[in-house]
Amino acid sequence: MKDEHALYDHVAGEGNPIQGSPLIEVCDMVKYFPITGGVFGRVVNHVKAVDGVSFEIAMGETLALVGESGCGKSTVGKCLTRLIHLTSGEVRLGGQRIDNLSDTGLKPIRKQLNIIFQDPFSSLNPRMNVEALIAEPLRNHGIVQGKAERKKRVGDLMERVGLPREDMSRMPHQYSGGQRQRICIARALASDPDVVVCDEAVSALDVSVKAQIINLLMKLQADLGLTMLFISHDLAVVEHMSDRVAVMYLGRIVEIADRDTLFSEPRHPYTKALLSAVPLPDPEARRERIFLKGDVPSPIDPPSGCCFRTRCPIATDQCAAERPELRSIRPGQKVACHHVGTEQD
After folding, report:
1. Strand partners, 314
2. Cα–Cα distance measured from residue 273 to residue 289, given in angstroms and rounded to the nearest whole number
């Protein structure tokens, strides 16, 4: 059987952090969703989807955000692109704070930020043909004037993502899943953005189609200098796609490092458990599997102190009493764990 890893081409960098001033800065991002109850619909509690997340992304860099389902990855991407409002915290794009902008003030910023969703079929209007779908951001932002010029721009975008321009009159249901995702990518590129958030953009695709879309995204990033937040639970894809990786658990980042360091020397117990579950392409190779006890706690009532302590094999009383801060343990690697660097690590 052909190695799945061989399906992915190294079109972008080699996984090293890109130097330079950060284009994206997220500081202590918090997003709580209210839970209402009673006759009057009062707020009785909150779902703590994102609980104090901070990171930076340099221009031209790909930061991967990984973790189990429900850890808050997609919420971070939607808050970053201002599809939903933050509860608290700051988001800066090119040094400009954008989390507190009104809808009017945000409109010119939206050209610079775009998102590609997981399900291409539900994110495309079934009543619009491909030309109208891709041209929508061109009209909304007044990027191209005139029908002829707009049609030419749509055709160019279709060819860039591997679709024939002659098919722009077709409807979304006439395309396969991979082709529909190419339409979504073309639409995301229409406004010539600086930042693209890929929210599980390849998880709904077959392996061979997934490889084609990954290679396309990497080529587009290299050609256009895109900055990307790549949200995924597929660590095999992340290893080939990213420059740095941030690991989330229950709304918090527990480890962040460059790709090579994280995959070769993970330090947080949760990161080690995640990586131990990644299948190896060599059937003769063996890896010690780390099984976590218990279930993921509810984000409505997360544990005190370290959010991972209820499943952690090295948890102590200190973990229940104190929330560990994300601290640097070596250049380019940060971990939120009281016991990293001690004999218990």
Report:
1. none
2. 7
For residues 140 and 143, what is the distance between their CA atoms, to the nearest angstrom? 8
pLDDT at residue 121 is higher than 90: no
Strand order in the sheet with 62-66: 113-116, 195-199, 227-231, 62-66, 244-249, 252-258, 333-335, 327-330
Q: How far apart are CA 170 and CA 185, in angstroms?
A: 17
> 1 pLDDT exceeds 50?
no
Close Cβ partners of 211 (under 8 Å, ≥ 6 residues apart): 7, 8
- Please state the pTM of the whole predicted model: 0.88
> Tokens 């994102």 — which residue?
50
Residues 6+ apart with CB under 8 A from 280: 286, 287
3-class secondary structure, 21 = coil
CB contact at 8 A, 8 and 215: yes
- What does the DSSP assignment read for 174-236? GS-HHHHHHHHHHHHHTT--SEEEEESTTTTS-HHHHHHHHHHHHHHHHHHT-EEEEE-S-HH
Per-residue confidence band for 20, with pLDDT thresholds at 50, 70 and 90:
low
pLDDT higher at 163 or 293: 163
Using an 8 Å Cβ cutoff, are 167 and 86 in contact?
A: no
Closest CA to 254 of 273, 235, 236, 237: 273
Compute φ and ψ for 92, nearest 5 degrees. -120, 140
CA 332 – CA 264 distance, rounded (Å): 14
Query: What are the structure tokens assigned to 193, written together?
Result: 């953005």
**Cβ atoms 115, 81 nearer than 8 A:** yes
Q: What is the rounded CA–CA span in Å between residue 295 and residue 138? A: 46
* pLDDT tops 80 at residue 155: yes
- For tokens 């029908």, what's the residue? 147
- CA 213 vs. chain centroid, Å, equals 15
Tell me the residue length of the chain.
345
Q: List, for residues 190-224, the tens digit of each pLDDT value.
A: 999 999 999 988 887 888 888 899 999 999 999 99
